[in-house]
Design a protein that fits this description.
- There is one protein chain.
- The protein is an all-alpha fold.
- It has a domain at 10-183.
- Helix content is 78%, strand content 0%.
- The protein is flat.
- The chain crosses the membrane at residues 34-52, 90-109, 121-148, 168-195, 207-223.
């Protein structure tokens, strides 16, 4: 006796409907998510705007603590006293909205993923957000004071360091973004292993080249001093080792399930 064909699963039905959906419908769905992102970003920006000057004072605190008593920060442009806090306010709003932004992007691509991909993507997404914030925190509390102390301590005695507020803001934002993305190395390593593009054995064999690559990359993306390079390259190396360790644990779990 022939058994009746089983009904298609809900996931399979959703994937078929997505494949049959025209590109214009996908764009309409994407536009709805983008509108939500823009609305939250604008709302956060205007909520934080009254505190823009106070936020900039917090950002400049590591520099002002290192400056001599006779030195101060300066503005070389008429609009700098307004634009610098304004730019920083937008950056803070963007960082605060990042979990919501990633959630909206995740909600857009989630229907196209299999159940296994969804179960893996959720912890990776949460981990990437946490590591990004951790990288920015490390840059502000550890790297930035050390780098500023080095540069000010080596300045000639006849030169009074007076940093422009726009230049300092650009320096800090670049440093924050570099460290924020650098702390994503464990997630990138895990994704490459999960996709089968590399294996942990290959990464172990290429470890010495990867370590050299960490110092090579740090040399180009940090200020031109050895301290900045070391403070970025060493965490990159340690984060790679963390991702490699997690990859080994994942491969062992796979072998046990086979």
């Amino acid at each position: 006796m022939n058994s009746l064909p089983s009904s298609p699963s809900k996931e399979h039905t959703e994937r078929i409907s997505l494949e049959e959906m025209p590109i214009t419908k996908h764009l309409i769905v994407l536009r709805k998510h983008l509108f939500k992102i823009v609305a939250v970003l604008i709302g956060l920006f205007f909520c934080l705007l009254p505190f823009a000057n106070h936020t900039y004072q917090m950002l400049s605190a590591p520099l002002r603590m290192q400056l001599p008593a006779s030195s101060t920060m300066i503005a070389t442009d008429v609009t700098a006293t307004f634009m610098a806090p304004f730019k920083l306010n937008f950056f803070i709003a963007l960082m605060m909205a990042m979990p919501f932004i990633l959630y909206q992007l995740w909600a857009f691509i989630k229907p196209a993923l299999h159940e296994k991909e969804k179960s893996l993507a959720t912890p990776l997404l949460i981990g990437s957000i946490a590591l990004f914030y951790l990288g920015i925190s490390f840059a502000y509390f550890v790297a930035l004071p050390s780098i500023l102390h080095f540069f000010i301590s080596v300045s000639p005695e006849t030169v009074a360091p007076m940093t422009d507020i726009n230049s300092y803001l650009s320096f800090c934002l670049k440093l924050f973004l570099v460290f924020g993305f650098t702390f994503e190395i464990p997630i990138i390593t895990l994704v490459l292993i999960l996709m089968g593009l590399v294996s942990t054995q290959t990464l172990v064999e290429k470890r010495r080249f990867i370590i050299v690559g960490c110092f090579f990359v740090a040399m180009f993306v940090t200020p031109p001093d050895a301290l900045s390079m070391i403070m970025l390259a060493v965490p990159m190396w340690m984060l790679f080792e963390l991702g490699l360790f997690a990859g080994k644990m994942l491969e062992k779990r796979r072998l046990k399930t086979l």
